[in-house]
Amino acid sequence: MTQDAPEILISERIGAVHRLTLDDPKRLNALSEEMLARLQAEIDALAVDKTVKALVIRGTGKAFCAGHDLKQMQAARQAPDGGRGYYNALFAQCARFMTSVRRLPIPVIAEVHGVATAAGCQLVATCDMAVAEEGARFGVNGVNIGLFCSTPMVALSRNIAPKKAFEMLTTGAFVGAEEAERLGLVNHVVPAEALSQAALELAGRVAEKLGAAVKIGKEAFYAQGEMSLDAAYAYTGRVMAENMLLRDTEEGVNAFLEKRKPDWAEGA
User: What is the C-alpha to C-alpha distance for residues 79 and 245, in angstroms, rounded to an integer?
Assistant: First the structure.
């Protein structure tokens, strides 16, 4: 970020929870080139920070995130190649960020208000959990302007039933927060005034657990989902065996049996 460039992402620590706030309300917190670069830098730093136990992502203004910056995308058409190189680089940049969120060794919670559209809805689906306000709306509505949400489809179709995902993608229709909860896109729906507290409370409950165990569990959760049943059980059996060998896990089991609070070395 240059000295004259506005700050568009707020990064803060609240105990063992980190919070990133998309702060570009004039562009509805669009995933512009600049926003993606700032988010990627934060995710890369968090990936090696052993003191943080959970991450909350939220936005300011009227929207959680309205997807990619269409003005930037249209401007790229002036390039000699019509924008092909720019578009390939932009969607690769976005894919890297989304996969980095998924591979982050801590749970990531989306705190959703207003609307989450296109790549904004993709971000919600990419996060491990989501809390939404009662009035929030979700859509992969690029088809309405002739641009099928192919990359948002990757995350969305891994969150909700295929037929409902396809309907959203082909009609551009929005779903409300309550339906999003029924579909499995969000975990909890709360009144707007309780949204931030609810997201922090969920993150806090996760942060109380043994970080090493949660890290192991998150990686295994997504890995086993891509395996056959037999392979998944074989893999997760090995994962649990390794987990049992951790010193802090031994302490946790002993503490449970002795009816006391565990004294974990990592300070969980």
Answer: 57
